[in-house]
Amino acid sequence: MIGRLNHVAIAVPDLGAASKLYSDTLGAKVSQPLAQPDHGVTVVFVELPNTKIELLHPLGEGSTIAKFLTKNPSGGIHHVCYEVENIIEARDHLRAKGATVLGDGEPKIGAHGKPVLFLSPKDFVGTLVEIEQV
Ligand code: CO
C-alpha cells in the first residue's frame, strides 16, 4: 500500500546549527527556514536526490515539537512520512488492520499542502508514521 518515502522529519533544538550541519558538514542543499504556524513548526527542507529531510523547530505555544524536545533535548527523529495514492482508502485499510489513526481520523492539510494523517507509534515499532496522499 505505501509508496515512496516522502521525508524523514528530525526535531532540532537549534535550527541554524542543524541547517549548517546539513549544508556545510553533509554538503546537502537546504532551504531557508519556513514558518508554518498552523503546524506549530519552523521547517528547513533538506533536498536529497531520493527523498527529503525536514528539520523541525517549535513555533508558538503548545507545539508538539517542543514536547518532543523536552524528552529528547539534543533532538531526534520525530517521524517518517510514506506516500499513499488514496488517503481515505489507506486510513480504512490501516484501521481494519488494527492501527490507531491519531486525531479525529480526518485528513489534515500537511506541510506540503496535501492531505496527511498520523499513525500511533505504539502500532509501528515506536515510530510516529505520517501518510501523505500524493
Ligand atoms: Co512530516
Detail the topology: elements first, then pairings.
Elements: E1 5-11, H1 15-25, E2 29-30, E3 34-36, E4 41-47, E5 52-58, H2 64-71, E6 76-84, H3 87-96, E7 108-109, E8 115-119, E9 129-133
Parallel strand pairs: 1-5, 6-9
Antiparallel strand pairs: 1-6, 2-4, 3-4, 4-5, 7-8, 8-9
Bound molecules: cobalt (II) ion.
Key phrases:
2,3-Dihydroxybiphenyl 1,2-Dioxygenase, domain 1, binds cobalt (II) ion, 3 helices, alpha+beta, 134 residues, globular, nine-stranded mixed sheet
Structure, explained:
There is one protein chain. The chain contains 3 helices and 9 strands, in the order βαββββαβαβββ. With 134 residues, it is of the alpha+beta class. It has a single domain, classed as 2,3-Dihydroxybiphenyl 1,2-Dioxygenase, domain 1, CATH 3.10.180. Strands 1, 2, 3, 4, 5, 6, 7, 8 and 9 form a 9-stranded mixed beta sheet that branches. Strand 3 and strand 4 form a beta hairpin. It is globular, with a radius of gyration of 15 Å. Bound molecules: cobalt (II) ion. The site of cobalt (II) ion has 7 residues, from strand 1 and strand 6.
